[in-house]
Amino acid sequence: MLIGTLSHISYGRFAAALILPALLSLACVLAVLLVAFRRELRGPPLVSKDVPPPKVRRSSAILCLAVLTLILGGFLLGYSLAWTALFGAALLAIFSRVPPRDLLGRVDGSLLLFFAGLFVVTHGVAQAGIAERIHAGLAPFFGTTAGQQVFRFGLFTVAACQLVSNVPFVLLAAEWVPKLTDPQLQWLALALVSTLAGNLTPVASVANLIVLESAGEKGRIGFWRFLSVGAFCTFLPLVLALVCLLAESHLK
């Protein structure tokens, strides 16, 4: 959403450009996981057959699907991503008949605070001029052609996301991308790379922290164990997806 807002690329154009690279990446990550955890997958089922299926509130499910369809329509029509999403959330809060206290009580405050802290640090780096100096020093390394910059700036993105997480880095890189060759292609590549970079280590994406914290004791995965699988789930789909994205750009 940040890249869509900062780049002014429409939702439809964004989705059309990245749907094939995203599907290829997903298939690649799935293949890696099937190979990496082949022994565990051959064992007994992870979920007991005696566990009853979750209860579904039919009215709430219909409401959620209707609001989701409305939000998607707003995105495709070019309305603000942020305000459209907030409008949908407000509709759910009003018509779901669930007390707002219960809804807000499920928000993880510690993760939000952690996320906010990353934004503060990133903004401080930008205001201090450190980001501009980093860009000036690395600009020759990124190359001059669009293809070189996609891969080299992508490699830098993967490394940087491990330090400040992928979403704060997007804010940091927002001042750099317009200076690159073919900015629209570079925005799309940044969306692709920063997302897949989140697979490498637990701290590369706040989504990783949410999953690991939600898993409790089952989520105690060591850093090196995460990295050993995450490396394959990052670089293999990344190369495949970027090649696909560049091929699409050359066909246009």
The major pleated sheet works out as: none
User: Which overall shape is indicated by the principal axes computed on the Cα atoms?
Assistant: globular
User: Roughly what percent helix?
Assistant: over 70%
Tally of individual helices? 13
How does this model look, in words?
With 252 residues, the chain is mainly alpha-helical. The chain has a domain at 108-251. Helix content is 75%, strand content 0%. The protein has helices spanning 2-7, 11-36, 38-42, 58-76, 81-95, 100-104, 109-127, 130-142, 146-164, 166-173, 183-197, 206-215, 223-251. The chain is globular and about 60 Å long. It starts with a helix and ends with a helix. 23% of the residues are buried.
Write the layout of secondary structure elements.
Blueprint: H1 2-7, H2 11-36, H3 38-42, H4 58-76, H5 81-95, H6 100-104, H7 109-127, H8 130-142, H9 146-164, H10 166-173, H11 183-197, H12 206-215, H13 223-251
Helix pairs in contact: 2-13, 4-5, 7-10, 9-10, 9-11, 10-11, 11-13
Summary, kept brief:
This protein is an all-alpha fold and 252 residues long. Helices cover 75% and strands 0% of the residues. The longest helix has 29 residues, at 223-251.
What labels would you give this structure?
single chain; 252 residues; mainly alpha; 13 helices
